[in-house]
Write a structure and sequence with these properties.
Number of domains: 1
Strand content: under 5%
Low-confidence stretches: none
Structural class: mainly alpha
Radius of gyration: 21 Å
Mean pLDDT: 81
Distance between the termini: 67 Å
Number of strands: 0
Order of helices and strands: HH
Length: 50
């Protein structure tokens, strides 16, 4: 019983970590996108001109 409890808590811990990491990645991507929106837009325009 104890071993199974430990195993379950470990899997829960791992899944929660993965979930947190995914959320962090999304927030970082959004922040990055907001910060570099103008730059990427300029680059796209330059590429189209070239």
């Amino acid at each position: 019983m104890e071993a199974s409890k430990i195993r379950n808590s470990r899997t829960l811990y791992i899944f929660s970590n993965i979930f947190l990491i995914k959320i962090l990645d999304r927030t970082i991507e959004r922040m990055y996108y907001k910060l570099h929106k103008e730059c990427t837009f300029e680059n796209k325009v330059k590429v189209r001109l070239i």
